[in-house]
Every structure is written in structure tokens, then in C-alpha cells.
Amino acid sequence: MELDAKDDGVENSIVVGAEVDISSAYDCAVCLQPCNQPVKLPCGHVFCYLCVKGATQQSKRCAMCRQEIPVNFLDNPQLVAETLSTVAFEDKYQWFYEGRNGWWQYDDRTSLEIEAAYKKGDTECEVLIAGFLYVIDFQRNLQTRRCDPHRKRHIKRDLVTIPKKGIAGIRQPADTVVTTTDPDSCSSSSDEE
Length: 193
Ligand SMILES: [Zn+2]
Ligand SMILES: [Zn+2]
Description:
binds zinc ion, zinc, alpha+beta, 25% strand, zinc ion binding
């Protein structure tokens, strides 16, 4: 089945097979890699969105200057440039995890790690997301937090063009958000959307 990437106004969010080079301009002081979905804190320091998320669950301070991170920062992060561009695998697939009313796409780095394990035929793999280790179970299509196995989410490998909430907790621009209203998508007990 061929999908035309120009449909549905999603063409801006897809760069098939391309490097996302906006982010390589910044190295993240937390993970020491080029920033993945870089966001700028009020103090001006730039980190990966997920690294800031990890920090807010721990010290709640900037890793560089220790300035406090506003409590609502993650809901409305200041993105550095258009960071929602994303890679898709050669067959236009990506990895997604279940959120409250729809699916979040994994950030590119995590998605590539999961894909690599999947392609190798592994039954599971571990990924580090926002400071927590998660086990990806390919047989049950579940993501489980290593140190807190009650935190489970469904995952799936699907076309990058499916309706989604956003990428790794950063919402899509409003005009492209399509929410499903599945009443019993109950990953409820989770505080992280
Ligand atoms: Zn980082
Ligand atoms: Zn700072």
C-alpha cells in the first residue's frame, strides 16, 4: 500500500531517511550527545526534551546552572527551531507508544534503537528514556519501566503517517493533531503523558 506523504498536511513533519541536522548544533550536557528534540530552558541552556524531562523528575534544576525549571515547562517547552522533523525507516514505519488518547511517536534516537533490536530479531530490548530504563517487549508489544513494572504502555510499529499526538511528549502543532476518542485507552495510572 502506497501512502502519499503530501496528504493530510503532514509533509512538514517527515524527512524520510534524512539526518536531522538542526539538533547537531547543540550538544546536550546531560546525555553528552547531540540534542534530540532540543528545548531551551528559561536560563538559556539547551538540552534534549527528554533529558529535561528526566531532570524535572529528579533535581528540577538546569544541569548547567542549577536554575530551577518551571513546573509547567514540559507542557509548553520552548523548542529550538522546528524540532518535530523526524526520520522514518526505509519502509516508512516508526515506533509508537500509547498515550491517554492516542499514540506518541518515540523520539528518533529511541525509535532507531528499538528498530535496530527489532530488525535483529531480538524478543526484547532496553532503552533509556528521560533517565529511566524501559524494557521493550516485542512479543507482547509492551513497554515496561525496568524498576517499576506496573508502568506499562502498549507500543506498536506503524506507518509514520498515522494520526499521532506528537513525538515523545512534544505535541504536534494544533492543526495536525488528530486525537482518537477511544474511551478505554487507559494507561491512566501514569503521570507522564
Ligand atoms: Zn540529552
Ligand atoms: Zn541553565
